[in-house]
Design brief:
The complex is a heterodimer of chains A (486) and B (258). Chain A contains eleven helices and 23 strands. Chain A is an alpha/beta fold and 486 residues long. In chain A, strands 5, 6, 8, 10, 11, 13, 15, 16, 18, 20 and 22 form an eleven-stranded mixed β-sheet that branches. A ten-stranded mixed β-sheet of chain A has the order 4-3-7-9-12-14-17-19-21-23, with helices on one face. Chain A has a two-stranded antiparallel ribbon with strand order 1-2. In chain A, a hairpin with a 2-residue loop joins strand 3 and strand 4 (139-143). Mean pLDDT of chain A is 84; it is low at 482-486. By secondary structure, chain B is of the alpha/beta class. Chain B has one domain: Rossmann fold (3-Layer(aba) Sandwich), CATH 3.40.50.300. In chain B, the strands form three sheets. In chain B, strands 6-9-10-3-11-12 form a six-stranded mixed β-sheet, sandwiched between helices. A four-stranded antiparallel β-sheet of chain B has the order 2-1-4-5. A two-stranded antiparallel sheet of chain B has the order 7-8. Classes of the chains: A alpha/beta (486), B alpha/beta (258). The interface between A and B is medium-sized, with 24 and 30 residues.
Chain lengths: 486, 258
C-alpha cells in the first residue's frame, strides 16, 4: 500500500521545454574575474567614469569578501561546491550591427528564439498589452512599446540605455536600495553587471500596460548578472513581470541578479516573477544557480510594494525579495510559490523591515516539494523602534509529495516596538494516497487530481499574478508536475 | 427489469496488502436490485467494496468480476468510475484548497465526456447542483468551501450522496454510510439514496446495522463472514440478525470467539 505512487514518480521525469540553444555568434570576453574584465565591460558600454568607479569599488570589496570566510553566504540550507569565480565568462553578447533603429532590424535568430519561448517581439502581435525588454545573455536585445510608453512620460529601456540617456536618475537610485557591499552576490553583481531593465514612472502616472523583462541565458560557461531598477514616483503605479529560461546543459551556470525598487509617496509597484531556469536533470546534473538579491524601498508615505513569485526552475534558488517599509503607513507584500523537484534545492523567503509608523506587511509562502527536492522558507520580520502600530501577518505552508523530499521553515521575528503586532502560521501537509484515490473514484485522472490539489494549495498566491501570467504559472506548475496541461 | 446481471462476482479471492481477506465470493447483482451486505467486524465487507472500485493495495488473486459484461479487475479506478461504478466512502477525505463545486464539476464533466456528452458549463452545472443539493438538504455555502474541510460527519456523508446524485452511476456501493450519523442525518442520507433507486441501477449497501435498512429497504441480504458469503435471504434476514446476532448462522466466525 505504501510504495511510490506512479504519478508522483513521473514527476521526476518531466521534460524541460526551453532547453534549446540558439546558434548565434557571440562576442565574449575570456573567463576570469579581474579588474581588466570590469574595465572592459564598462568600456564596451561606454560608461561614464562614475559608474566605472562604482564597479571598481564593488570589485575590490568582492575580492576582500572572497578572502573573508564569514562573507561567503553559506548559512543557507543548500549545498554546492564553492564556485570558481575565475572560471566564469562575465560578458557574452550576440554580435549584431551596433544599434538597431527599429525592432524589424533585430537578428532573425534572436527573434526566432523569443518566438520559440512564446515571447513576441513584434509590436503588431501585441501580447495582451505587455511591453517586453528582452535580455539575452549579457545584453538587452530589444524593448517593445517604448514609443507608446514615452507618450505617458514613462521610461522603459535597457539598463545600458538608461545610463546613456538618463544618467541622473540612474546615479541617484543605483545602489540606493541594495548597496554594492550588501552581500556576496550583490557585490559581485555590482562589479560585473552587464545589462538589465530600467523603468521610471513619473508622478501621477498609472502605467497603461504591464512592463516585463524576459531573461534568457544562452551561451555556455557564462554567468548572467543583470540589474533591474524600477522607480515609481509620487502617486505612480506599475505592474512589472519577469520571466526566465536557459538551455539544458550539464554544467551549472550562475545567475546573480540585483533588483532594486523605489516607491515614493503613495506609489505602488507590483513585481511578479515566473522563474523557470533550467533546473538540472533528475540526477541533479546541471541547472542554474539562481542567487538573486531583490529589494524594494517604500520610501514614501502610504507607498506599497508587492512581490509575487512562482519559482519552479533552477538547480539552486537563493532569493529573498524584501521590503524596506520606511514611509509611514507603507505596505509590503510577499506572495510566493516555490516548487522543488528531483534534486532541486531552494532557500527562499523574504525580509520585511518595518521602520515607519503603522506600516504593514503580509507574507504568504507556499512550498511544494517532490522527488528529492529540498526547500526552506527563511523570512525575517523586523519591527524597528519607531514602527508604532506596525503589523505583520505571515503564513508558510508546505506541501510534500512522496517521502524523499524535505521542507523547512526558518522564521526570524524581531520586535523592538511594543505596539507592533506579529502573527505567524505554518502548516505542512502531504498529498495523500487517499486524496488521490478519492478523486480517481470520482472519475478524475490522477494527474488532473494532483494538478487540482497543487493549484488549490497555491491559489492564494496565483490570484495575485496578472491574468496572463497566472495562466502561464498554472500551466507551468502542471507541466513541471507531469506534462499535463491544467 | 432485465435478467442479465449488471455486476457478476465469481469465486472472488482478494488480499489486502499481503493478507488474504476474501476467500471465494459469488454474487449476481441485477439492475433494479438493492443488496445489503452485513457481517461482523473483520469479515471482509470493506475489502469487498475496495476491490470493486480498484483501490491500490488490494489485489485480486483468483476469480473474476464483470460489470456490464466487461472485466472490471484490470480497469483503472478512474475508468471504472466513469463507466458508472461509485463508492460512497466510509471515511470521506478532506482536500484543503480545492473548492467543492470546482471538484464536482470536474468529476461530472469527466463522466460526461466518457459517455460522449457535452461538458457542462459553470451555469448549467450550477443549476444541476442546486437541484441535487436540495435533495440532501445541503446549504449552498458548503459548495464554495474546500472539499469536506471542516464538514461534520453527517455533512461529509451527505456530500458523498450528493456526488452520487450528480454522477448518476449505475452501480452504487455504500460503505457503512450510516456510521456516525444521527437519526435526522440518516433520514436525509437515506432519502437521497432512495431518490436514486431505479430499474436500471444496482445498489450494494454495506452496513453493520439493521437501522439503515429500515430506510433503504433491500431486496436481498447477504451475511459475509471470514471472506465468504455464508447466508443469503430477503429483508427479513436483516431483522433476524438484529434480534439474534450472527452466532446462529453456520460458518460465522464471531468476533472474539474464534
Amino acid at each position: 500500500m505504501a510504495g511510490v505512487n506512479p504519478e508522483l514518480e513521473k514527476l521526476a521525469k518531466q521534460d524541460y521545454k526551453y532547453g534549446f540553444v540558439t546558434d548565434i555568434e557571440e562576442d565574449r570576453v575570456a573567463p576570469g574575474l579581474t579588474e581588466d574584465v570590469v574595465r572592459l565591460i564598462s568600456s564596451k558600454k561606454n560608461e561614464p567614469e562614475w559608474l566605472l568607479e562604482y564597479r571598481l569599488k564593488a570589485y575590490r570589496r568582492f575580492r576582500e569578501m572572497l578572502q573573508e570566510e564569514e562573507s561567503h553566504p553559506e548559512w543557507a540550507k543548500v549545498s554546492y561546491p564553492r564556485i570558481d569565480y575565475d572560471d566564469i565568462v562575465y560578458y557574452s553578447a550576440p554580435k549584431q550591427q551596433k544599434k538597431i533603429e527599429s525592432l524589424d532590424d533585430l537578428d532573425p535568430e534572436l527573434r526566432e528564439t523569443y518566438d520559440k519561448l512564446g515571447i513576441s517581439l513584434l509590436e503588431q502581435k501585441r501580447l495582451n498589452g505587455i511591453a517586453v525588454d528582452a535580455v539575452f545573455d549579457s545584453v538587452s536585445v530589444a524593448t517593445t512599446f517604448k514609443a507608446e510608453l514615452e507618450k505617458h512620460g514613462i521610461i522603459f529601456c535597457s539598463f545600458s540605455e538608461a545610463v546613456e540617456n538618463h544618467p541622473d536618475l540612474v546615479k541617484k537610485y543605483l545602489g540606493s536600495v541594495v548597496p554594492y557591499s550588501d552581500n556576496f552576490f550583490a557585490c559581485l553583481n555590482a562589479a560585473v553587471f552587464s545589462d538589465g531593465s530600467f523603468a521610471y514612472i513619473p508622478k501621477g502616472v498609472r502605467c497603461p500596460m504591464e512592463l516585463s523583462t524576459y531573461f534568457r541565458i544562452n551561451a555556455a560557461g557564462t554567468g548572467q548578472f543583470e540589474r533591474t531598477l524600477l522607480i515609481a514616483d509620487d502617486d505612480a503605479y506599475v505592474s512589472y513581470l519577469e520571466g526566465c529560461t536557459a538551455p539544458q546543459r550539464d554544467e551549472n551556470q550562475l545567475h546573480a541578479a540585483v533588483v532594486e525598487l523605489v516607491a515614493l509617496d503613495r506609489a505602488e509597484i507590483k513585481y511578479s516573477t515566473v522563474q523557470n531556469w533550467y533546473p538540472g536533470d533528475e540526477n541533479g546534473v546541471g541547472g542554474i544557480y539562481n542567487f538573486v538579491t531583490k529589494r524594494g524601498a517604500c520610501r514614501g508615505h502610504k507607498s506599497k510594494i508587492s512581490w509575487t513569485q512562482v519559482e519552479t526552475g533552477s538547480a539552486i534558488t537563493w532569493k529573498y525579495p524584501s521590503c524596506l517599509l520606511i514611509g509611514d503607513e507603507s505596505v509590503g507584500e510577499f506572495y510566493s510559490v516555490a516548487m522543488t523537484n528531483n534534486k532541486q534545492q531552494a532557500d527562499t523567503g523574504t525580509k520585511m523591515i518595518h521602520i515607519g509608523k503603522n506600516t504593514s506587511s503580509t507574507i504568504i509562502s507556499k512550498g511544494i516539494s517532490a522527488g528529492h527536492g529540498d526547500q526552506s522558507y527563511r523570512g525575517l520580520v523586523r519591527m524597528g523602534p519607531k514602527a508604532h502600530g506596525a503589523r505583520n501577518y505571515s503564513q508558510c505552508d508546505s506541501l510534500l509529495m512522496g517521502d524523499k523530499c524535505g521542507a523547512h521553515t526558518f522564521p526570524y521575528l524581531e520586535a523592538s516596538n511594543p505596539t507592533a503586532t506579529l502573527e505567524h502560521e505554518a502548516t505542512t501537509s502531504k498529498i495523500s494516497d487517499d486524496q488521490l484515490f478519492f478523486c480517481r473514484q470520482r472519475g478524475i485522472s490522477e494527474e488532473d487530481a494532483i494538478s487540482m490539489i497543487v493549484n488549490g494549495f497555491c491559489k492564494e498566491v496565483l490570484r495575485e499574478l496578472p491574468m496572463e501570467f497566472a495562466v502561464e504559472a498554472q500551466n507551468l506548475l502542471s507541466v513541471s508536475l507531469e506534462g499535463a496541461v491544467g | 427489469m432485465s435478467d442479465a446481471p449488471l455486476v457478476s462476482i465469481k469465486n472472488l479471492h482478494a488480499n489486502a496488502g499481503d493478507t488474504p481477506i476474501l476467500k471465494g465470493i459469488d454474487l449476481e447483482l441485477r439492475p433494479g436490485e438493492v443488496h445489503a451486505i452485513m457481517g461482523p467486524n473483520g469479515s471482509g465487507k470493506s475489502t469487498l467494496s475496495n476491490v470493486l472500485v480498484g483501490k491500490p493495495g488490494y489485489e485480486v488473486t483468483q476469480g473474476e468480476v464483470s460489470f456490464q459484461g466487461e472485466d472490471l479487475v484490470d480497469m483503472d479506478p478512474e475508468i471504472r468510475a466513469r463507466a458508472g461504478v461509485f463508492l460512497a466512502f466510509q471515511y470521506p477525505v478532506e482536500i484543503p484548497g480545492v473548492a467543492n463545486n470546482y471538484f464536482l464539476r470536474t468529476a461530472v464533466n469527466a463522466v460526461r465526456e466518457h459517455r460522449g456528452e457535452d461538458e457542462l458549463d459553470a451555469i448549467d452545472f450550477l443549476t444541476l447542483l442546486k437541484e441535487k443539493m436540495k435533495l440532501v438538504e445541503m446549504p449552498e455555502d458548503m459548495m464554495s468551501r474546500a472539499i469536506n474541510e471542516g464538514f461534520s460527519g453527517g455533512e461529509k456523508k451527505r456530500n458523498e450522496i450528493l456526488q452520487m446524485l450528480l454522477l448518476e452511476p449505475s452501480f452504487c456501493i455504500l460503505d457503512e454510510t450510516d456510521s456516525g450519523l444521527d437519526i435526522d442525518a440518516l433520514r436525509i442520507v437515506a432519502n437521497g439514496v432512495n431518490q436514486m433507486r431505479s430499474p436500471d441501477r444496482t445498489m450494494l449497501v454495506i452496513t453493520h446495522y439493521q437501522r439503515l435498512l429500515d430506510y433503504i429497504v433491500p431486496d436481498h441480504v447477504h451475511v459475509l463472514s471470514g471472506g465468504r458469503i455464508v447466508k443469503s435471504g430477503d429483508k427479513s434476514l436483516a431483522l433476524e440478525l438484529e434480534e439474534k446476532g450472527y452466532g446462529w448462522i453456520d460458518g460465522v466466525e464471531e468476533e472474539g470467539v474464534a
